[in-house]
Amino acid sequence: MFALAGLYLWRQLHADESTSALGWLHDGAAWTVGLLPIGLLMLVNWGLEAAKWRLLMRPVEALAAPRAFLAVLAGTSISLITPNRTGEFVGRVLFIRPEARIEAAAFTVLGSIAQALMTFLAGAIGLLALVAGHHPLPLQEGWTIGLLASVTVAFTAAAAVLFLFPGLLRHLFDLLPALRRFDARFRPLQEQPRARLLAVLGLSALRYAVFIGQGVLAFGLFAPEVPAGHVVLAMPVVYLLATLVPTVMLTDLGVRGSVAVFVFAPLGGGAAGVLSATSVVWTINVLLPALCGALVLLVARIRTERMPA
Fold it and tell me: Do 73 and 92 touch, CB atoms closer than 8 A?
């Protein structure tokens, strides 16, 4: 998959005669003025995720906001080496008392389902809006669009059911022999009040709005030929397709970049500009927090023992 993504990007970049969008590498003003808002939104993004995780952890352990934020960063670092960043719970539960880490992992999975639900839902809306608005798409209208729409609806429905009825998630855990013996510890999943679940879903929606805002800012810097309205509609489709493709750290950026070029090329986006925008958002939003999380993990034992819960 990564080889195909890399080949696609190479061909698109060589087909694109303009590489002026890459000039930001040598423009100090772009770093201080253009990228600063994207960086600030990154802090908002992970702050919202920390608030969401802290809310989910209430039945398990009361966490101070700084501790929750450090746990989220640690999880981001671990998640980069797991498919589609599914291993974030491993880093996070280090900040939970040992006897409650099984429950914490289960609730972390529930939070990931909430974010995935927003990705599928926004992707479906973006795809529908592009089709309804007769915007050019990389996929031919017909069975390919129908297949993508069907898969998206199925994933959206599954995520919605699992999140809104987390007792079903407990039953799914029971299907795995290695987890069946922890069934009693998964019981709090089905005891979550609906108001808390909706609050978590609201925070997930706010995070997604931040993602889109970062995309609009990045495309304004590196691919201004794409109207902001098109970015708002197409970015959810990019996130949707990238989520459906299995990736790990070494392939994530390549796949995301190729998907972004694939989606935005028919909308007038040059390959160099689209790849620049995608790379900058990924670097600021994922790689930098993951590096900070790696530093947190280096001192996780000290921080876990000394920071107030």
Answer: no
Interior CA angle at 53 toward 76 and 55, to 5°? 170
Three-class SS of residue 2? helix
Question: pLDDT value at position 253?
Answer: 66
Q: Would 68 be classed as within a structural domain?
A: yes
pLDDT tens-place string over residues 188-217: 888 889 999 999 999 999 999 999 999 999
Q: Has residue 105 been placed in a domain?
A: yes
Going by C-alpha positions, the residue among 166, 268, 185 that lies closest to residue 225 is: 268
What span, in angstroms and rounded, lies between the C-alpha atoms of 83 and 152? 19
Longest dimension (CA), the chain: 61
**Residue holding tokens 């501790």?**
67
Q: What is the residue range of 167's domain?
A: 2-8+31-306
pLDDT in tens, 78-88: 877 776 666 78
Going from the C-alpha of 120 to that of each of 124, 179, 253, 281, the distances in angstroms are 6, 27, 20, 20
Cβ–Cβ < 8 Å for 145, 137 = yes
Q: What is the pTM of this model?
A: 0.83
Domains: count for the chain: 1
